[in-house]
Design brief:
Growth Hormone, Chain: A; 14 helices; single chain; mainly alpha
Length: 462
Amino acid sequence: MAVVPDAVPDAEAASAVQPADSPPASTGPSAGSTPASAVPSAGSTPASAVPSADPEPASGRLVLGLALAQFGVMLSLLTPVMVTLALRVDQIVPKDERGTALGQVLSLGAVLALIGNPVFGSLSDRTRVRFGRRRPWLVGGMAVGLAGLLVVAVGGSVPVLLLGWALAQLGGNAALAATVASIPDLVPARQQGKVSGLVGVTTSLAMVVGTLLANALHDRLALAFVVPGLFGLAGTICLALVMKDRPAAPGAFAPYSLREFLRSFWVSPKRHPDFAWNFAGRFLVFTGVSCVTSYQVYFLMDRLGYSESEVSGKVAVGTVVMVGAVIIGSLLGGTLSDRSGRRKPYVLGASLVLAVGLLLVALAHSFSLFLVAVAVFGFGEGLYLSVDVALAAAVLPNPEESAKDMGVLNIGNALPQSLVPILAPALLAIGGGDENYGALFLFGGVACVLGALAVQFIRSVK
């Protein structure tokens, strides 16, 4: 996967293939994107390189390829996090050491995911091999991810698990960065709501399928790692076969250096305020989402009184209900958003529905009410996912760096998964004790409302 950027005199000018204040309609090439030879070099935007006002619609094959790639990559990454890594650690270390060992493995993975997504996105943007700038990272990244999962499956010590999971996270996030960037690259703005909704649903489906796979293969645990990885590789190959990819434009980027590495994590909020408001909104909304996803097990045990042997079944039922609601919300929101050409009202509505769902969870004192609450919560999450990527695509500072910038935005939904567990003990301890779940979920609801308000400050999107 060679990355061969041309040297240019000024990094900022070199990356500015398109002005930052370009209209949202030009967020990336359409499915019939301009070949590399016609792509302008830095500082020039000839008419032949400007996307047409009515770009070619994304084909059904491309949409299916995007969905399969996202589903496969997320299945390979989420199944270990949710189930199989804990079981693998339990096989290797004594019972009194497994909590610490699992924490080490998951923490390393979370850090590498935060770093890998924007860094590999930046490298993908500037890749100039003839197969295109996304395909090598899609297929090559997932191949490395599968190799890492194989190491985890056969490793017999915690250091080996750390090595394997590091490879799995780095490879998987390289593939994920290329997958997510392919939406603004290849899907015209008028379809991005529906497509992002369909692709967003696959993450929830991956959670359900991963749980079912882990349950079916619990007595053959090695396969429970390998099978999701094979799904991931197959999905990325499907997308690579149907997508129209192109190499990076010659001379569009500065040579990759420490400065460019650090720049992979940064987009100036002063120069690109709409991007910054979208990042803030995404961070706050996913803070609310993480309150439920991180603490529903303990909520069911502490407040509703389920034992360890009972809680996994209750979580499975709740997950199915939530995913069903996510699918309905995603398909409805994406279709209506594309028809209206508006994004912000759907983000506002979705965030408020999420806040209501969190309030209902905070008030739930029976499993039936909990299911009602997670159904409302899931519907709001689906609405949000249906326009999340479309809104992000509309505020990207530079379409030629879509993978890098989408990777920066991904920090906004990944970081809360690490921060909420740090804040939660203080919230749970309000009023004495350690079970004030009302305070935790109300905190999440307030975060969702603030996230909705942040998005309303975006000026370039309706």
